[in-house]
């Protein structure tokens, strides 16, 4: 089976799932094996770099933090640093996550991510979030007009370590899901993939 066909099947299985904000068990061990078997032998140069970024992202959708980390730490561009930062945020190493987001500087998906995150926050019923501090930070993220990865790390840390708010967690997981889908699509496009990976 070709890279494209196998990749589309895996993406269809994995990318509807909203990964947790904190470490949990892998969604499906078999998916890790399937991702590992995606052959990158036909790629060279930047195409290979982004093909590895696709695999790193798929592992994160499968909540396989270590496998994603193994790949992303060897991808020396802003997209690799982005996946690396998400992985550390998901594992709860928030200062390390911010380090990797500093390495990203700015990323081409940031403007669309800012729009989508703001729309998600505006559509949510923030009154359902009991934590006033979390509501205030979400309003700040929404009002900024640009994506602020450091503020998002702070929001996740606040939710995981202090607020533990059910509605807040659902909204933050949704925003993280939007972030990961945009970054996966970008990684796929930059690898030379035609059309859309996520449909």
From TrEMBL:
Designated name of the protein: Uncharacterized protein
């Amino acid at each position: 089976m070709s890279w494209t066909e196998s990749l589309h099947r895996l993406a269809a299985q994995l990318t509807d799932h909203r990964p947790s904000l904190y470490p949990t068990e892998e969604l499906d061990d078999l998916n890790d094996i399937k991702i590992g078997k995606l052959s990158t032998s036909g790629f060279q140069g930047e195409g290979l770099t982004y093909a590895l970024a696709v695999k790193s992202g798929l592992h994160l959708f499968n909540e396989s933090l270590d496998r994603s980390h193994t790949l992303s730490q060897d991808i020396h561009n802003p997209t690799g640093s982005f996946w690396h930062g998400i992985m550390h945020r998901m594992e709860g190493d928030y200062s390390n996550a911010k380090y990797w987001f500093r390495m990203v500087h700015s990323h081409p998906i940031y403007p669309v991510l800012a729009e989508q995150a703001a729309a998600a926050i505006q559509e949510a019923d923030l009154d359902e979030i009991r934590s006033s501090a979390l509501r205030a930070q979400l309003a700040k993220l929404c009002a900024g007009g640009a994506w602020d990865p450091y503020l998002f790390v702070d929001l996740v840390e606040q939710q995981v370590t202090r607020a533990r708010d059910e509605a807040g967690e659902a909204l933050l997981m949704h925003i993280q899901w939007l972030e990961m889908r945009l970054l996966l699509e970008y990684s796929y496009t930059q690898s030379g993939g035609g059309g859309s990976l996520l449909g």
